Amino acid sequence: MDPARNLETRISAVEQLLAAQAAQVPLPASPPRVTAPPIAMPERYDGDPDQCRGFLMQVGFYVEEHPEMFSNPGAEVRFTVSLLTGRAREWTTVSPLSHSHQSLNSLYPSVMRGSMYKQPEPDRRFQ
């Protein structure tokens, strides 16, 4: 037999043997998909200064967990304002910032970072 032909026959036999063995080896199971626990809808905020940081933290977590809901400009602002009640909601109607969506949108990142948060002075109009 021709040496080249003999080599081709042996290579073919080895390939068939490897293919047969590979077919018998089970594929490793894919690792279980790890999903983060769901983030609850933030509780409504009534303007209590002691609860402000916690409220902003909850809103921030919720927004991070659901980026598809907040892709439009101003969506985070509208969402946050929709969670306000009582004197906090009243603030949005009397604040000069609330009359300009652009102002609210530009202010929002600073509020969420907490860099603008200071313990507010009591607002006599709402006491």
UniProtKB/TrEMBL annotation:
Where are the annotated segments for Disordered? 28-47
InterPro entries xref list: DUF4939
* Ranges of residues in domain DUF4939: 33-93
- What's the name of the protein? DUF4939 domain-containing protein
User: Which species?
Assistant: Paramormyrops kingsleyae
For this protein's source organism, the top of the classification is: Eukaryota, Metazoa, Chordata, Craniata, Vertebrata
